[in-house]
Amino acid sequence: MSRVGKYPVAVPAGVTVSVKDGVFLAQGKLGELRLPLSKDIETTVDGSTVSVKPVTETKQARAMWGTTRALINNMVKGVSTGFTRKLEINGVGYRADVQGKVVKLKLGYSHDIDYALPEGITVVAEKPTLLAISGADRQKVGQVAAEIRRFRGPEPYKGKGIKFEEETILRKEGKKK
User: Fold this and answer.
1) What is the pLDDT along the chain (177 residues), one digit of tens a residue?
2) Rounded to an integer, what distance in angstroms lies between the CA atom of residue 51 and that of residue 19?
3) Are both 65 and 105 inside the same structural domain?
4) What is this structure's pTM?
5) Phi, psi of 123 (to 5 degrees)
6) At what angle do helices 59-80 and 138-150 cross, to 10 degrees?
7) CA gap 74, 25 in Å, rounded
8) 89 and 72 in one domain?
9) Structural domain total, the chain
10) Domain of residue 136, residue span
C-alpha cells in the first residue's frame, strides 16, 4: 500500500499557502487555486511545508490522506510553474488556430470546430499542427486537452487525428489482396 500522504509538500519561494474554514488556498505568480478539504483530513502549514494526516483510521480517511496530499502538491506546483500538455495534429489539411479565447480546428469535417477555452487556460499554436495547452490547474489542463483530442482521435491505419505529443499510436496493417 502506498504511503504518499506521509511526505510533506515543500512550498517554493513566491508561493503562499493557507488553510482557512476547511479550504486550502495556494497563491503564486500563475494565479490562485482553492481546494475544499475533507473533514477526515487534518492539514497543517509549517513555514515552507504543508503536512497532511488523517484524523481517524477509517478507510475513507486513509484514502483521502494520499489524495489530498497529491492535490495540494499539484496546486503548489501549478501556481509556481504551471502545467502543459501538447497535442499533435496529423492529417492532410488538419490544422488549428487560436483566436483570442477560441481554438478553431479544421479536422476534415464539413465545418470548422470552435472550442471556447475555460477561464485560467491558455493555448498557443506553436505550429498549425502543434497545440500547447497550459495553466495552473492540472485537472483543467488535462480536461481541455482530452476534450480537444476527442474531436478527432487518432486512427490506427494512417495515424490521422489529434494525439498527445508523448502518445504512441499502435499502427495496424491495411487490407491485403
Assistant:
1) 568 888 999 999 989 999 998 899 999 999 899 999 988 899 999 888 999 999 988 889 888 998 999 999 999 999 999 999 999 999 999 999 999 999 999 999 999 999 999 999 999 999 999 999 999 999 999 999 999 999 999 999 998 999 999 999 999 998 887
2) 11
3) no
4) 0.88
5) -125, 135
6) 80
7) 12
8) no
9) 2
10) 83-164
